[in-house]
Design brief:
Layout lengths: L6 E3 H17 L4 H12 L2 E3 L14 E6 L4 E8 L10 E3 L3 H6 L7 E6 L2 E12 L1 H7 L1
Parallel strand pairs: 1-2, 4-5
Antiparallel strand pairs: 3-4, 3-7, 6-7
């Protein structure tokens, strides 16, 4: 269960709102995921791309995590639904793990429910964040 509001950039917020609106009819089976993402966005802290802290997971960020259930270290990139590719470790923001990580920062533990119980991930590092990369360029 998340204990604080997520941080999200204004461009990501706007695009995710459009995805939710356009996906309701196209992806009726994803209704539960769309509802969950919408709830997250309703309570989000919205910031400009330049102001978002570099340790926060934003769209297209690459993040390294520790699965506290299995003690395995994993790496993912959080992407928009059409860009997901499990073989390239690109996870859709509509997937439960994508939603769990989005807007949280290195050092935080995120939790979410799966059929077998609660999954827990410690965010070890945001290896790449597009907003931080643009500021550094």
């Amino acid at each position: 269960m998340k204990t604080r509001k997520i941080i999200i950039t204004q461009p990501d917020y706007s695009r995710l709102r459009r995805i939710i609106a356009s996906s309701r009819d196209l992806l009726p089976m994803d209704g539960e995921h769309l509802d969950a993402l919408e709830r997250e966005l309703e309570g989000a802290v919205i910031t400009g791309s330049v102001e978002v802290p570099r340790e926060v997971v934003t769209m297209n960020s690459r993040v390294r995590v520790l699965d506290l259930n299995s003690e395995r270290e994993l790496a993912y990139q959080i992407v928009f639904p059409g860009e997901a590719d499990v073989f390239r470790k690109r996870i859709s923001v509509l997937a439960p793990i994508g939603m769990a990580l989005l807007g949280h920062a290195a050092g935080e533990i995120v939790e979410w429910e799966v059929p077998s119980g609660t999954r827990r991930l410690l965010i070890l590092e945001v290896e790449y964040q597009p907003e931080a990369a643009r500021v550094a360029a």
